[in-house]
UniProtKB/TrEMBL annotation:
<dbReference type="InterPro" id="IPR015424">
    <property type="entry name" value="PyrdxlP-dep_Trfase"/>
</dbReference>
<comment type="function">
    <text>Catalyzes the reversible interconversion of serine and glycine with tetrahydrofolate (THF) serving as the one-carbon carrier. This reaction serves as the major source of one-carbon groups required for the biosynthesis of purines, thymidylate, methionine, and other important biomolecules. Also exhibits THF-independent aldolase activity toward beta-hydroxyamino acids, producing glycine and aldehydes, via a retro-aldol mechanism.</text>
</comment>
<dbReference type="InterPro" id="IPR015422">
    <property type="entry name" value="PyrdxlP-dep_Trfase_small"/>
</dbReference>
<dbReference type="GO" id="GO:0035999">
    <property type="term" value="P:tetrahydrofolate interconversion"/>
</dbReference>
<dbReference type="GO" id="GO:0050413">
    <property type="term" value="F:D-alanine 2-hydroxymethyltransferase activity"/>
</dbReference>
<dbReference type="InterPro" id="IPR039429">
    <property type="entry name" value="SHMT-like_dom"/>
</dbReference>
<dbReference type="Pfam" id="PF00464">
    <property type="entry name" value="SHMT"/>
</dbReference>
<dbReference type="InterPro" id="IPR049943">
    <property type="entry name" value="Ser_HO-MeTrfase-like"/>
</dbReference>
<dbReference type="InterPro" id="IPR001085">
    <property type="entry name" value="Ser_HO-MeTrfase"/>
</dbReference>
<comment type="pathway">
    <text>Amino-acid biosynthesis; glycine biosynthesis; glycine from L-serine: step 1/1.</text>
</comment>
<feature type="domain" description="Serine hydroxymethyltransferase-like">
    <location>
        <begin position="22"/>
        <end position="410"/>
    </location>
</feature>
<dbReference type="InterPro" id="IPR019798">
    <property type="entry name" value="Ser_HO-MeTrfase_PLP_BS"/>
</dbReference>
<dbReference type="GO" id="GO:0008168">
    <property type="term" value="F:methyltransferase activity"/>
</dbReference>
<comment type="pathway">
    <text>One-carbon metabolism; tetrahydrofolate interconversion.</text>
</comment>
<dbReference type="GO" id="GO:0004372">
    <property type="term" value="F:glycine hydroxymethyltransferase activity"/>
</dbReference>
<protein>
    <recommendedName>
        <fullName>Serine hydroxymethyltransferase</fullName>
        <ecNumber>2.1.2.1</ecNumber>
    </recommendedName>
</protein>
<keyword id="KW-0554">One-carbon metabolism</keyword>
Amino acid sequence: MSNSTGGGIAELGTCEWPPLAVADSRVHELLLRQERQERTTLKLIASENFASSAVLEATGSIFTNKYAEGYPGARYYAGNEIVDELENLAMDRLKALFGCEHANVQPYSGSPANQAVCRALLCPGDKMMGLTLPEGGHLTHGWAVNFSGTDYQRVPYGLHEKTHQIDHDSLRETAKRERPKLIWVGGTAYPRIFDYEAMAEIASEVNSYLVADIAHISGLVVAGVHPNPVGHCDVVTSTSHKSIRGPRGGFILSRNEDRYQALYHSKSKHNLAKRIDRAVFPLLQGGPHMNTIAALAVALHEAGNPSFRVYGQQIVNNARALAQALLERGYELVTGGTDNHMLILDLRERPLSGKAYAERLSQAGIITNFNMVPGDRRHPALTSGIRLGTPAVTSVGMREAEMLQIAAFIDLVCRQPDDSDVHARVRRDVADFCAAFDVPGISDR
Ligand SMILES: *Cc1c(COP(=O)(O)O)cnc(C)c1O
């Protein structure tokens, strides 16, 4: 509905554009409510973060208006001299941070980045191997309802029955039997370090591409608190909005040359880097989102600052402290702990589903998501797990001491899941607790 008084758009030919509060009071009100929610709750969703004001400013800049189909120096539109510099800057910063030969910053997000990689490396019907979704893999690594499952042959791998960590021996067996052309290493709910060296050895034994998807952990890699897959993997993909704290988007890193060019792509005159670029544009996408690329460049500049290493280390320290505190309170964690920014509460032995606990926690101002755990017997829409992550709470400045308090809040709610008075009390305490911290992008605006 448009409001007939006060709001709306400027008269043609004038420059009197009203601010959001006036132009669209409905959206403005929703924005204020979202800001308030984020200031007064604990954001423990492992894939979320608080982008800085500078990143948000670039995201909301006039770069949003520019069409720049193509790549720097080879565009299909005029007037791109400045955005050429911008995109080159983002690519150069990525290459410097990760030490890779080639970077593509145009994918609209993580899933389109993964799709582009599949199109650059595989033919429809080829075999792709990935960690299953219930055990921590991502939709795009070969799940039935996703393009990766409909367009390619899925060869799933799982976790070790007891350790719930990647079982390289059985993975090797499966790879030797199935001879996949692509192996994914990475996940969305895996709290341990990925062994890229071991995975690279297996991939080489079966002439498979190895692709690391570091969507969750790219910030940790840049900070030096998780191994860098570049060098071990043919291609690396990531989102730009998770631990690396940039805008909503994705990027792809790779070598220039394809080590399997003669084997799988002898008919192509393009090397690996070029095939990836062509898969992103024009195969799958049109014009890149230059505002997002601008914001990515800003985020990478921030991530190159020594303070980002401190940030990354604190994310991990916080996850460990939270894990330890929850273990001491009698909770089970998948793999018994964490090496990175996330932990997964294993609630299989508890009376309610992961979804039910996540709802209770949310009423108490603790924002999480429910998640499958290894051996889960509940439906994927209910699950027996809760995933917790520390990137966002670390961005607001919380440390180990705060993690102990967060564990206490979680415990209060989960021990009394049916007592809404308790939830309301914790909700107030959480709001008081959060008030002591400045939230990037909100408090400093
Ligand atoms: C988040 C995530 C993605 C997908 O990112 P979107 O931006 O949501 O498309 C891909 N892979 C992994 C491992 C992820 O965690």
